[in-house]
Design brief:
With 207 residues, this protein is an all-alpha fold. The chain is 59% helix and 2% strand. Helix 2 crosses helix 3 and helix 6 runs antiparallel to helix 7.
Length: 207
């Protein structure tokens, strides 16, 4: 939830104002700093924080945050993962859109105006490109791994007992908070035991 405008104005008067979250689609307890470190690395956060303090990032920063937000929301949402795994064309469209945003950031670079600032922007763009590549590769690997797991476990249990769907994974996550650091890759359920009719003893012969 956004901080009311009046409260934000009061915060801006302090020596170290509290910044609102700028990465979109973050419905978790992770801060911008934690997300950047997870996706781009600790050194990238230092670079980004330096540029933010100079207040010269503007539109390029917003586009970078959008890239991180798109990656983050898929990583934290098994239902979105299922959709992208089942629709390779949709996954490609998303990855292409992420790469397009980085290309727009590249167009806005001004190496002649401030060489050092431009170098820092280049560091962030390179880190973001690696993050996009890893994001895409992880989805491809997950799709292939699901097939291998299904084939191997299918020798020992019924197909319906091997669950990769978002609902099953969310139901067996590490805890019930919105942190949900690790989701299970697959959930196995037992085969229901057959229900035998109750034995009421030998039938009595009546004469």
């Amino acid at each position: 939830m956004n901080v009311p405008i009046a409260l934000a104005a009061l915060q801006a008067q302090g020596e170290e104002p509290t910044r609102l979250r700028e990465i979109p689609y973050n419905y978790t307890s992770f801060s911008d700093r934690e997300i950047v470190i997870r996706l781009l690395g600790a050194s990238a956060w230092g670079v980004l924080d330096q540029l933010r303090r100079e207040r010269r990032t503007g539109r390029s920063a917003r586009m970078l945050y959008e890239v991180l937000g798109d990656i983050w929301v898929v990583q934290r949402n098994p239902y979105l993962q299922d959709d992208l795994l089942h629709n390779p064309d949709r996954r490609k469209m998303l990855v292409d859109a992420l790469i397009h945003r980085l290309a727009e950031i590249e167009k806005r670079r001004q190496p002649d105006e401030h060489a050092e600032r431009d170098r820092l922007v280049g560091v962030l763009v390179a880190a973001a490109r690696r993050a996009i590549g890893e994001f895409d590769a992880t989805l491809v690997e997950a799709s292939e791994l699901r097939k291998r797991v299904q084939k191997r476990l299918g020798k020992h249990t019924a197909k319906d007992n091997i669950k990769f769907d978002g609902l099953s994974r969310v139901s067996h996550v590490t805890d019930a908070t919105d942190w949900r650091v690790e989701y299970p890759f697959v959930v196995l359920t037992p085969t229901p035991r057959p229900r035998w009719p109750r034995w009421s003893g030998p039938a009595s012969n009546s004469s």
